[in-house]
Amino acid sequence: MGSIDIGDVSVTRVFEWAGDIATREQLIPSSDRRDWEANASLLVPDFWDPATESVKLCVQTFVVKSGGRTILVDTGIGNDKERLWFPTLRTEFLDLLTKAGAAPEEVDLVVATHLHTDHVGWNTTLTDGRWVPTFPNATYLFPQEDFDYWNPEGDDEPPGGPAYSDAFKDSVLPVVHAGQAQFFSGEHVIDGNVSITPAPGHSPGSAVVEVTSRGESALFTGDLVHSPMQILGHEHASCFDDDPARAATSRDRVLHRASETRAAVFTAHFDVDKAARIARQGGRYVVDSWTELD
């Protein structure tokens, strides 16, 4: 757990899980090992193990406190949920959230950058055999395009199979049925410091959360970037991108924004207590520096 202030807004990283779910070649098929080796000083040991080829990933939530409200950006895997790629977990994640000043009853808003399995899990918890919203006083903001894409209550089976539809059924629909869901499409302003910008491609409704306060800024990019190699080469799609070309366009646009504003960039799966600062050098993006979280 680490924290940083972005102007008047506080950000705390709350860790849930870390492990190896893919090799370099599996995660980013278009990348070349020689490029990874050439950037070993950036990638090893935090992001890549050259001996095993595994890419190191984690799952986490960001607690954003702005204007007197407590906001969660993504909610991880969750407990008691059987998931492809991830183990069935029994963690003390809610205790960590409480230590970060975000006990379930204190959360005002939950923002899903997209509706994949590892971003919606703690939306609900198992209570008396039913999945119920974990955060009883919160509004949950869901991207409309993702909801429409995976909604299994329609006539057709949602794309992606059980890896996505199971999470939708136990972690999204119970929130909707409880009347706690609100949907966004396109630009969405949360308050004077926090807003949402669409970044489609990884999923139809993928979005980025931006914080701006007193001349400082931060970007929460969800799954736009899984590895620093996708910063160095924004054209590289991950194996989880629904529309690789569209994701690359979104990645380019967001990285350009990050380089212009010198934003602190927080990705969903970098297992480090620091934020990346992006710059443009020689026609490509680079990680210019890191800002440590306290």
Automatic annotation (TrEMBL):
<feature type="domain" description="Metallo-beta-lactamase">
    <location>
        <begin position="58"/>
        <end position="269"/>
    </location>
</feature>
<dbReference type="Pfam" id="PF00753">
    <property type="entry name" value="Lactamase_B"/>
</dbReference>
<dbReference type="GO" id="GO:0046872">
    <property type="term" value="F:metal ion binding"/>
</dbReference>
<keyword id="KW-0479">Metal-binding</keyword>
<dbReference type="InterPro" id="IPR051013">
    <property type="entry name" value="MBL_superfamily_lactonases"/>
</dbReference>
<comment type="similarity">
    <text>Belongs to the metallo-beta-lactamase superfamily.</text>
</comment>
<keyword id="KW-0378">Hydrolase</keyword>
<dbReference type="InterPro" id="IPR036866">
    <property type="entry name" value="RibonucZ/Hydroxyglut_hydro"/>
</dbReference>
<protein>
    <submittedName>
        <fullName>MBL fold metallo-hydrolase</fullName>
    </submittedName>
</protein>
<keyword id="KW-0862">Zinc</keyword>
<dbReference type="GO" id="GO:0016787">
    <property type="term" value="F:hydrolase activity"/>
</dbReference>
<dbReference type="InterPro" id="IPR001279">
    <property type="entry name" value="Metallo-B-lactamas"/>
</dbReference>
